[in-house]
């Protein structure tokens, strides 16, 4: 069973466990960096919880998840279609003012991260904001029937350094908002800027 299979099988349980979690503090900081009414991709939207928040705050939201069952539940929750696409299948170019990837890219194997992050960055407009969150640590592999890649701040910085279009805004650790969990999270906020090629030749 891979991570997508897990979410298809446990969609109802996962929905109930996450749909009411309060992410407003982090979402508020993300929203403050975006243009009013801008386009936002909720990448790996899960229950649709954060899509609903962004919609309520006037943003033009595209919601996407690799799990068909999660897409169906999220679509009912937010009242519009959710794209059933994996990270590999996404094919946007300069579309979004912001990309919200809360606890989603942590399922990408480390050796595939550069490729997936390239797809994500390509999807953003210049000046766009990307938020990502990962569990803090060194573990990579199957855990609770899903594939996880944990990161330390040093490793995150090394990955970002390979993308000259990404400017780090904030890299911050935080506790899990779920009271029964002791996980530490890394919250990463970056801005897409012009690449060196664009600055020199365009």
Question: Which helices and strands, and how do they pair?
Answer:
Layout: H1 3-9, H2 11-18, H3 24-31, E1 39-43, H4 49-56, E2 60-65, H5 68-78, E3 83-84, E4 96-101, H6 113-123, E5 124-135, E6 140-143, E7 146-149, H7 153-161, E8 166-175, E9 184-192, H8 196-201
Parallel strand pairs: 1-2, 1-4, 2-3, 4-5
Antiparallel strand pairs: 5-9, 6-7, 8-9
The assigned structural class equals alpha/beta
Largest sheet: 7 strands, mixed
Summarize model confidence as the mean pLDDT: 93
> What's the overall geometry?
globular
Number of helices: 8
From the alpha-carbon coordinates, what is the Rg to the nearest angstrom? 16 Å
Shape-level CATH architecture: 3-Layer(aba) Sandwich
What is the level 1 CATH name?
Alpha Beta
Contiguous low-pLDDT stretches (5 residues minimum) are: none
How many strands in all?
Answer: 9
CATH homologous superfamily descriptor: Vaccinia Virus protein VP39
CATH topology: Rossmann fold
């Amino acid at each position: 069973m891979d991570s997508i299979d897990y979410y298809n099988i446990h969609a109802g349980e996962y929905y109930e466990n996450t749909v009411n979690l309060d992410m407003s503090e982090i979402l508020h900081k993300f929203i403050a960096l975006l243009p009013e009414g801008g386009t936002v991709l909720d990448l790996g939207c899960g229950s649709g919880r954060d899509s609903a928040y962004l919609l309520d705050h006037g943003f033009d939201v595209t919601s996407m998840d690799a799990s068909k069952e999660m897409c169906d539940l999220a679509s009912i929750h937010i009242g519009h279609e959710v794209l059933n696409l994996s990270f590999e299948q996404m094919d946007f170019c300069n579309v979004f003012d912001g990309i919200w990837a809360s606890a989603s890219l942590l399922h990408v194997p480390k050796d595939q991260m550069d490729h997936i992050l390239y797809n994500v960055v390509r999807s953003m407009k210049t000046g766009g904001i990307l938020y990502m969150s990962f569990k803090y640590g060194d573990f990579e592999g199957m855990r609770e029937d899903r594939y996880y890649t944990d990161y330390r701040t040093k490793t995150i910085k090394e990955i970002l350094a390979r993308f000259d279009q990404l400017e780090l805004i904030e890299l911050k650790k935080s506790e899990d908002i779920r009271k029964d969990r002791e996980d530490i999270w890394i919250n990463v906020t970056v801005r897409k800027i012009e690449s060196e090629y664009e600055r020199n030749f365009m």
